[in-house]
Amino acid sequence: MPPPQHSSPDRADILRLLREHIPDAVHDLAAIQVEGPIVVTRHSRIFRAQVPGLPTPLVVKYLIDPSTGSPNGGAARVQFEALDRVHRATKIPDPAYRIPVPYFVAESRGIVVAEWVDGRPMTEMLLSSRLTVAQAQDLARRAARWLRHFCALRPLPPMPLDIAGMLHGIGDMENTKLSRYRFARAAFAALRQHAVAAGSLAVERSWLHGDFKSDNLLVDDATTIGIDMYARHESSVAHDLASFVNHWELTLCNPRAWRWWSHRQLFARTFLDEFDPTCRKERRLSYAWIALFGMLGLWDEFTRRRQRTLRHAYLAACFRRIIRRMTRELAEAADGRAA
After folding, report:
1. What Rg do the C-alpha atoms of the chain give, in angstroms?
2. What torsion do the CA atoms of 38, 303, 246, 278 make, to the nearest 10 degrees?
């Protein structure tokens, strides 16, 4: 049975919130323009508000708990706090690599309000039939540079991977439907086999974006803007690197992206080398281990949404193929390190 649907905020709701939280900027309610929802997903509704006197329009993001259909106040609080944390840490903003300016959160309504930023989602650009290989490589470099700027705001001493915690996560996944698949079982075994070696090397650490992928990067000619970050946990930056490349791997399952299949490795190499070339050299094993662990987590989440559709069956086959290849790549990385 689908969850109950709660009504999205209307123009009057948004005007009341703006007047309550930024009264100094709201002088004439009639002059404020509200558009939307412009974007509608399972998790959110996006509105755009133009407030005379403010330097930019505002994005009004209404977050939804997909399991209940109700406002997701916890997620709204987390997203606002992450934006605020990163914004305060940015002493000298770089106009080329930045985040939206946060304004306020209405937790009880599940609403976050921040600066509206113009730009196209990087995924949309990658799916464009007009994008060239060189332009795709440039996007990969811009993603890596944004992440490098982000990590530089909170550098931490290098440490080995938290292998013990992730092995616990593997145990949890082994008790799910994922263990029915032989490619998943082989991947679990490979992660356990190479866990000690992968955790023996100190790796770069920082706070984590938490959902770093091309969907969450907006780009225009001169600016790359990161959105929907969490910046709560501190760990190896390999988690965010793997998140971006894993999302690229799944993007290639989209028929609009099939033309990029022959350039799959080129795009990933360009991204990783721009951020840190050691990800494909001396730290290759640690990165491959994290990447496979992360992809298994995505597959586990996917299997929990089992549907009897052709699209679901196709994506399930994509996951099996990707996991099989990534398991082989982990073994190759381990063999290379041993040699």
Report:
1. 21
2. 140
- Domain 11-115 and domain 120-338 have a common topology: no
Residues 217-236 have pLDDT tens digits of 999 988 999 998 887 788 99
Integer CA distances (angstroms), 205 to 119, 140, 154, 229, in order? 29, 21, 9, 17
CATH of 11-115, one of 3.40.50.300, 2.70.40.10, 3.40.109.10, 3.30.200.20: 3.30.200.20
Name the strand (E) or helix (H) holding 157.
strand 156-159
Query: 120-338, what's its fold?
Result: Aminoglycoside 3'-phosphotransferase; Chain: A, domain 2 (3.90.1200)
b/e map 169-192, b = 16+ CB within 10 Å: ebeebbeeebeebebbeebbebbe
Q: Exposure of 168 by Cβ count < 10 A (0-12 exposed, 13-18 middle, 19+ buried)?
A: exposed
Task: For residue range 37-82, list pLDDT tens digits in order.
Answer: 998 988 899 999 999 888 899 999 999 998 888 999 999 999 999 9
d(CA 240, CA 146) in angstroms, rounded, equals: 12
Joined together, the tokens standing for residue 318 give 């994509």
Average pLDDT over residues 8-21: 86
Examine the pLDDT at 3 and tell me if it is beyond 70: no
Helix axes 284-303, 163-174, angle to 10 degrees: 30
Q: Could you tell me the pTM of the whole model?
A: 0.90
C-alpha to C-alpha distance for 320 and 303, rounded to whole angstroms: 12
pLDDT tens figures, 247-295: 999 999 999 999 999 999 999 999 999 999 988 888 999 999 999 999 9
Q: Is the dihedral of CA 143, 149, 151, 156 positive or negative?
A: positive
Question: In this structure, what token pair is assigned to residue 270?
Answer: 């360009």
The residue type found at 236 is S
- Domain residue extents for the chain: 11-115, 120-338
